[in-house]
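Exercise 7. Given the encoded structure of a 490-residue chain, write a plausible sequence.
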């Protein structure tokens, strides 16, 4: 386990219980004048003030907040404190805030896949989120305990999320000065303006979770990061330093079949991808401010391609070449809705000339989006996305015979349609991707029903298709699936 996570666990197991213990009362004050018996030690209700929290960051883009509108992090559970969990008739309160959920989720492929199990997802998980606030700091620990019936191996790997435990958060947050916040440890970070599309968000994603039907919150994987936020009247600056590179939880054949260029065919559990992951650090910067009613930001990243962007033909290992990204975004009112534009230049530093077939070329990426409520409780969101390969002619000349060439410009269109019915307790939504250049698509339909403040159920699917098996979405067509979920939140 990485050093930062280990230190936080030691803090939780050793230091926190000591700090949470109540000191003895002065003589004469340990009993009241009533005839009621004393409460057992540790059951006295105490309220602690929350630390000062800065709130001058620009609002998150649509799809990243907790509102019932279309969301990147749609979390249907309703979280209450420990007192609600134990019942309203008790005065017992834990020395920390406790929330979470229990969930069961199952799904099946709707087409035959020769390289994967017909069951796409079959798991139950218990998420426990513990939060303790002190006068000058707060501590957060979020852990998922999982039984996964599809996985072949249950050995714990916190980097890939495999095994019976997934550590989502384990961090300390404190403010050493009035203009600085620090958050250190395992955390989930989100930047940029895209709705399920990412340019300047170079934090790890879990593509397996996204494609098999887990809740969309699990698309975001955790980072072991030291994040510093500096605030001023001119602009605000986020600095996120990750001492050891955190890769995407990428498609490797264990759960999702894919097109393997080296084989020239679809592969899965018969050809698991093994990688050579670098162990150096990565740095991400975001400088942002409000310009009237608009939110503007510039970004910088220095690290590696988050999913494998190269291949070692000698050792047969996937590689994560060096990558440097600069970009910017703006988001704000446009007509009757909200518009956004985001750009980024991907400098593939291990192949600056573009003549290495086995390393990704540099790219220019563009995203433009718009969202509007077109009727009561009916919201429409659209996006256009472009990937332009730099030094494309050099790329074509170096391409080995028999390998399928990528298009110089990959165009992608998305549409999200969301309808709320039954007093906003039922959410009907569909998110669609379509690439006219690749001639492939990906559909995410679902209906979510909030039964009450605790129970929710969801029915959804992931549908892939395309003209060719080597395009991004076309390669996943044998992974099309439907799923059903039941969740109890507390």
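Solution.
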């Amino acid at each position: 386990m990485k050093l930062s996570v280990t230190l936080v666990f030691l803090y939780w197991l050793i230091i926190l219980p000591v700090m949470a213990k109540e000191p003895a009362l002065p003589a004469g004050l340990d009993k009241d004048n009533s005839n009621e018996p004393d409460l057992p030690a540790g059951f006295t209700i105490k309220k602690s003030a929350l630390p000062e929290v800065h709130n001058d960051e620009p609002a998150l883009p649509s799809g990243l907040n907790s509102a019932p509108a279309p969301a990147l992090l749609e979390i249907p559970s309703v979280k209450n404190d420990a007192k609600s969990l134990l019942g309203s008739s008790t005065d017992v309160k834990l020395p920390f805030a406790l929330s979470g959920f229990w969930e069961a989720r199952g799904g099946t492929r709707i087409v035959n896949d020769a390289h994967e199990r017909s069951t796409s997802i079959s798991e139950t998980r218990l998420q426990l989120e513990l939060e303790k606030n002190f006068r000058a700091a707060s501590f957060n620990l979020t852990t998922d305990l999982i039984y996964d019936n599809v996985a072949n191996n249950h050995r714990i790997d916190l980097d890939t999320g495999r095994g019976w435990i997934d550590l989502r958060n384990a961090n300390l947050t404190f403010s050493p000065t009035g203009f600085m916040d620090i958050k250190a440890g395992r955390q989930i970070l989100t930047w940029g303006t895209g709705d399920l599309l990412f340019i300047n968000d170079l934090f790890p994603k879990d593509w397996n979770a996204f494609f098999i039907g887990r809740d969309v919150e699990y698309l975001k994987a955790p980072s072991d990061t030291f994040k510093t936020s500096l605030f001023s009247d001119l602009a605000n600056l986020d600095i996120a330093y990750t001492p050891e590179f955190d890769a995407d939880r990428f498609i490797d054949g264990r759960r999702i079949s894919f097109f393997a260029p080296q084989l020239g065919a679809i592969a899965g559990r018969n050809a698991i991808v093994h990688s050579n992951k670098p162990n150096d650090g990565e740095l991400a910067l975001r400088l942002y401010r409000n310009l009237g009613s608009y939110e503007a930001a510039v970004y910088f990243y220095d690290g590696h391609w988050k999913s494998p962007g190269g291949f070692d033909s000698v050792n047969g290992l996937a590689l994560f070449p060096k990558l440097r990204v600069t970009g910017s975004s703006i988001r704000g009112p446009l007509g009757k809705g909200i518009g956004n534009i985001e750009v980024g230049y991907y400098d593939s530093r291990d192949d600056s000339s573009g003549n290495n077939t086995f390393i990704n070329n540099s790219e220019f990426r563009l995203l433009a989006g718009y969202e509007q409520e077109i009727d009561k409780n009916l919201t429409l969101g659209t996006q256009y996305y472009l990937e332009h390969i730099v030094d494309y002619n050099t790329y074509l000349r170096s391409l080995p015979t028999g390998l399928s060439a990528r298009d110089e410009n990959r165009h992608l269109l998305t549409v999200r349609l969301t309808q709320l019915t039954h007093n906003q307790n039922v959410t009907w939504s569909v998110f669609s991707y379509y690439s006219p250049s690749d001639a492939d698509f990906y559909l995410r339909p679902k209906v979510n029903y909030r039964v009450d403040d605790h129970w929710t159920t969801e029915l959804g699917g992931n549908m892939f298709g395309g003209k060719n098996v080597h395009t991004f979405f076309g390669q996943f067509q044998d992974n099309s699936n439907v799923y059903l979920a039941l969740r109890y939140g507390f």
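Remark. The chain has one domain: 52-489. Students should compare their own answers with the one above.
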